[in-house]
From TrEMBL:
Domain Pyrroline-5-carboxylate reductase catalytic N-terminal stretches: 3-99
Lineage: Bacteria, Pseudomonadati, Spirochaetota, Spirochaetia, Spirochaetales
Organism: Sediminispirochaeta smaragdinae (strain DSM 11293 / JCM 15392 / SEBR 4228) (Spirochaeta smaragdinae)
GO cellular component annotations of the record: cytoplasm
EC number: 1.5.1.2
Gene name tied to this protein: proC
Keyword Cytoplasm among UniProt keywords: yes
Protein name: Pyrroline-5-carboxylate reductase
Family: Belongs to the pyrroline-5-carboxylate reductase family.
Amino acid sequence: MHTIGIIGTGVMGTAIATGVHAAHPSTGIVLFDINRKTGQALAEKIGGTFAQSPKDLIQTVKQESGTMVLAVKPQHLEGLAQEIGKDCEGLRLISIAAGRSIQTIEPLFPGSSVIRFMPNIAAQIGKSIVAVAAPEGTAPDFLEEAQTIAKSLGEAVLLDESLIAAFTGVSGSGIAYVFSFIHALALGGTENGIPYPKALTIAVETLLGAGELVKATGANPAELLTRVTSAGGTTIKGIAALEKGAFTSLIMDAVRCATEKAETMEKGKA
């Protein structure tokens, strides 16, 4: 892969830098962050380079025909664009800014080519699913490289940008629903006599096992549910209790509400 420049070394910027370094050790990585101490420490950790300014980073990326990742918060994009926007002509940019469409990013960095990522917090350990959205006409080699970068965070899925809000509802925010379920499952164990730390371990491993089973078999979760649910048994009693509380509808409502909020953010009405 070509050199990668990353502006912003917060949670996601750090995840991308460490993920790319782990998967592609020979790839040059140039970093910049307004918190120089943090940025320099990360550069030293991965054997990368810390640029003295965003303009210096851009110059290096251009010289190496590389890609630049904008790993800054959405509210900081305009300020960054005022500083470096005119210097980005011809650059390949990847943005991870939530709620900021490619259509709104491109005018800030005129003459650049933009691809959009939407990861979740599991990117910190290389276990995120990352949505990759690219406009029509994106150079195939840029799209391929973007997907390679995304895979350094976990798994990549290519989506039309119109589905990014729904992806946020399922994954970006959805991981929080899973945290809630894990906690609730552990509390249930505790209520029935298992100390919370052990109940939490049991709940986590159960969720991991369920996910891996779906992934490995390719089976519909509903099919696997029927396999484990015996007539008159313990599982159906638990499932009945979940549905008495409208479990399925609640999860679907959570996805819908988060999706609607993401769509509102996309329209600049957040």
